[in-house]
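Researcher: Go.
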Amino acid sequence: MKMNLIKTIAMGSMLGIAALSAPVFAADGDGMQSFFMEVKKMANKDGMVTKQEFMSMMEKKFDAMDKQKKGMLSADDVMKIFMDKGR
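Model: Structure:
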């Protein structure tokens, strides 16, 4: 039970940081808006996104950036995931 709370807080924190960072990304076009649109498309009829759906989306974005398949990205590359309109 305690682990679920920690995971929930971590996921909420990550989404909160992404939302608060929107003005930063706005300077680089509508990349963040594109991210929000993807999340909205994933939302079920009740407006919810499952952890599996969210993690799958992020895994695809991560893998697309990890061209050399090292299993890691620089912090700058991770930020590009949110700014890139084409992924």
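Model: The chain has one domain: 2-83.
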